[in-house]
Design brief:
The chain is mostly beta strands. Helices cover 10% and strands 39% of the residues.
Length: 724
């Protein structure tokens, strides 16, 4: 039997079976009609012959696709039993026609919902609604009382206060005149945007009213976009979807609240930051066999080595990066690829960032040689907090090619295959210039390559531990350098560039190796205030200078093979050499244009080896002053001495030898002679002629001639002054 609707398209369940009623309601659903049965009383009987009385409230039309049953129990009836029977009837007789529908039973209670919740293809919502109040379509310019119910765009709303409606329902809703209620509220809350029905006001005076949806959408997580139902096997597409959304609103932060996110490749867009819960809590890990760069900036392949700036090409990104996260390149499972490969301006690594196990370089950053800041997008300087980069499989920890003038708080780089930190500049293409690195620590990198500074760099504190450091750039400013276990395959600190300024170097070399230098300077115009060099019991040289125009204000070299080794010109070195094993000072006459002109001032305290070795400094060019233990009254390179007395009453040519005790054989040009007072004193002047005729390693030989003899018994001495 087919039932006809009564007023308001309500289909009664009276004088018919539940199955017939269900089929009729379903037929109405196909036509977009209303399907509502209002159960006035329920008499618990067996399921074969239900007896149900029906009445019909004034109910507005409902959209196709849902079934509402408003049930009201008979006074004094057993709710649990009655709802149980109703659930059984529906499951037995109506499930076939209610498939994939939403069944609303607002007054049925939790027991009915529990009965029906396991029914396949049927969703049950049980929530109390004031069915005693009639529901009508909302009308403009109408008086409404508190708790009046209206229908608007598929939902039921209750009046929050008595009012006269305007011409716009949404305006009245925004003004707080209406609030969604009843089963419609439950349905709407389950909607993807259901939280828009929940209000939110921040604590504190002056906060505005917002929805919970607005508040929750302030934060975007990659989890929001992870869709296994769409075939996601890792988070590659989740990151892509999140990037796309944030790009549409001009950038933002993608938060990663979980512990681990696996992806083949993540393309990081401009103005977007990926943020974890901490480097120890959240890891991005590359999927095995990806064999490509992992975390890359947008358009990287097209931009690398292009030298293009933000102002030149719209493809160049800026203001992007990562924060408080760990990046794992999974290099053992790759054939190629870097953990990070970025081209752009104003790169960001904020908080604590740990990058490791890239197959190639762990971190690769690059930007144009120069830029400018015509707009905030063109701002070039990167901002880096604390970066640790470890254990690349075949590459370096960080290959920095820009952006230039970046500011870095801390870099720690260790156990990388071909180096810890490398800053590089290629004119016209890229520039790894760093305004300042507050802390740079490299250690135990394979091949002994710690940090190679090939771009202008400022470093406050640089620690070289178990590898070596090199400055090939010019005009770097470095505060303190500490070398521990240096010199495994190279010198501890190599200065190849020019005009660099270094405050203090403290260097201790690696035991078990020989023949290196704690510090070597091959460039020109470099200045180091203090060098403290420890040569590990004579195994290594303290300071070696082969370049020109370099200055070391204070050298302290202890237990070195050679304390100071100079073969460059225009050097200025002062300091102390303690317990040298081979020699305190080694000099090789430079072959460059200047031919020397070095100024060396040393105190050498030796118990083994020799004070000096190599070439003799050049008169009129070099000035060498060496003092120290065991050199007697005369200094090592300067002497003011007297000859033994010689006769003034003898007119024959006399030869006088004067032992000099100098470290170098003086030349005749380096010796000046004076005649000292005669004895006994002679009131008349005596004409004495003398000259230096030879010098050797021990003596200065002077020839004396007195043309006119003085009084018998008169003698004099010759004063000898030598400056090397």
């Amino acid at each position: 039997m087919r039932l006809r609707p009564t007023d308001q398209n309500v289909y009664p369940l009276e004088n018919t079976t539940l199955t017939e009623w269900a089929h009729t309601a379903e037929a109405a659903a196909s036509d977009g009609g209303l399907k509502v049965a209002y159960l006035a009383t329920v008499t618990p009987l067996n399921t074969a012959s239900p007896s149900i009385s029906i009445s019909f409230p004034s109910v507005p039309r409902r959209p196709a696709g849902s079934v509402d049953i408003y049930a009201k129990l008979k006074s004094g009836s057993d709710q649990r039993s009655s709802m149980g029977y109703l659930a059984s009837w529906l499951k037995a007789a109506a499930i076939a026609v209610f498939q994939n529908r939403i069944l609303h039973c607002p007054t049925a209670g939790a027991f009915f919902s529990k009965k029906m919740i396991s029914t396949p293809n049927l969703k049950v919502v049980s929530e109390q609604v004031n069915t005693a109040t009639p529901v009508s379509n909302w009308e403009p310019d109408t008086d409404y009382n508190t708790n009046d119910l209206v229908w608007w765009e598929d939902s039921t709303y209750g009046a929050m206060a008595s009012h006269h409606s305007s011409s716009d329902f949404m305006a009245d809703l925004s003004a707080g005149m209406w609030r969604i209620v009843g089963s419609d509220l439950a349905e709407r809350l389950e909607d993807p945007e259901g939280s828009s029905l929940i209000g939110f006001v921040q604590s504190g005076a002056g906060a505005g009213s917002r929805t919970a949806l607005d508040k929750m959408r302030e934060c975007v997580t990659v989890d929001d976009y992870y869709r296994p139902d769409l075939g996601d096997v890792d988070h590659t597409q989740a990151f892509a979807r999140a990037m796309s959304y944030l790009a549409s609103r001009g950038g933002g932060i993608i938060r990663c609240p979980g512990n681990s996110y696996r992806a083949t490749q993540i393309v990081l867009g401009r103005f977007i930051l990926i943020e974890g819960m901490g480097a120890g809590a959240t890891e991005l890990i590359q999927s095995p066999g990806a064999n490509r760069d992992f975390l890359v900036s947008e358009n990287f392949a097209a931009l690398t080595l292009s030298g293009l700036r933000v102002s030149q090409d719209s493809r160049v990104p800026s203001w992007f990066g990562i924060k408080d996260i760990r990046v794992n390149g999974n290099g053992a499972a790759q054939n190629s690829g870097r953990c990070i490969a970025w081209y752009g301006a104003a790169i960001l690594m904020k908080g604590d960032v740990f990058v490791y196990a890239g197959h190639d370089d762990n971190i690769y950053t690059e930007y144009a040689i120069s830029s400018g800041s015509g707009s905030w997008q063109q701002q070039e300087e990167g901002l880096i907090d604390n970066v640790t980069t470890m254990r690349s499989v075949t590459g370096v920890g960080w290959r920095n090619r820009g952006p230039h003038n970046t500011v870095i708080k801390s870099i720690i780089s260790g156990y990388n295959a071909t180096g810890g930190y490398i800053a590089e500049t290629l004119p016209g293409k890229y520039d790894g210039n760093v305004t300042e690195i507050s802390h740079l620590h490299t250690y135990a990198n394979v091949n002994d390559v710690g940090a190679l500074i090939g771009s202008i760099t400022g470093i406050a504190h640089w620690i070289i531990d178990g590898d070596y450091g090199e400055i090939s750039a010019s005009t770097c400013q470095i505060g303190r350098v500490k070398i521990f276990n240096g010199g495994q395959t190279n010198d501890g600190l190599r200065v190849l560039g020019n005009d660099n300024n270094i405050g203090t170097v403290l260097g201790m070399m690696y035991q078990g190796t020989t023949g290196r230098s704690v510090v070597s300077i091959a460039g020109s115009g470099n200045n180091i205030s203090i060098v403290k060099a420890y040569g590990q019991l004579g195994a290594h040289t303290g300071l070696k200078i082969t370049g020109s125009g370099n200055t070391v204000d204070a050298l302290y070299a202890r237990e070195c093979s050679i304390g100071l080794d100079v073969s460059g010109s225009l050097s200025r070195v002062g300091g102390k050499i303690i317990l040298p094993y081979a020699a305190g000072f080694k000099y090789t006459i430079p072959t460059d244009l200047h031919r020397g002109k070095n100024r060396i001032d040393l105190e050498i305290y030796a118990t083994q080896g020799v004070y000096v070795t190599g070439d003799r400094p050049v008169d009129q060019l070099d000035q060498v002053n060496i003092k120290g233990s065991g050199l007697g009254v005369s200094a090592g390179c300067r002497a003011e001495i007297q000859s033994d007395p010689f006769a003034l009453d003898n007119t024959n040519t006399q030869v006088i030898t004067v032992p000099h005790g100098l470290l170098y054989t003086p030349t005749r040009q380096a010796v000046s002679l004076t005649l000292l007072e005669s004895s006994p004193a002679d009131t008349s002047f005596v004409d004495v002629r003398f000259k230096v005729v030879s010098c050797d390693a021990t003596y200065i030989t002077v020839q004396v001639k007195v043309p006119t003899a003085a009084a018998a018994g008169t003698k004099a001495r010759i004063g000898v002054r030598v400056t090397i």
